[in-house]
Amino acid sequence: MYAQESDVAALDSVELSERLSAVVRESMPWLVTVSDAEASVPERPGKWSAKQVIGHLIDSAVNNLGRVIRLQIGTGQSMPGYEQVAWVNLQHYSEREWAQVLALWVALNEHMAWTVGHIEKAHLGDVGSVAGESLTLGFLIEDYIAHMLHHLRLMRVWMGIGDKVE
Hints:
It comes from Tunturiibacter gelidiferens. The chain is mostly helical and 166 residues long. The protein has six helices and three strands, in the order αααβααββα.
């Protein structure tokens, strides 16, 4: 987990949506300065490239969007985790053009933000489990955003672009 759980009563779906949108909006100016060649180079041997990191965040969006919907349909849902390395490898993000990877990441997160912004406040406290870990819908969303920030910060550092998401 990447986030500390907030008091669910203090959460607001519109604010969560705006927070997610801001991460994407504030990251794009530096992400688009990365060339396709730079995005193809792994951080170091055995690690992912920027294309693969953003691909991983795409996979996170796909999986978490499903979780956001399922938790609103019925509390107590038990949802599996996913094999993150296999998802990245099987989708061959490293072979796609950087602009295509970024466009997909932006589109999925714009849709995620749209969906999150329409969650009824009462549903933010709905409880389910992911890979055996119990969590609320509100925490799932907060952790999704924190996970994205974590990877973007690390990527900026190892790519020499800076040490934080502005």
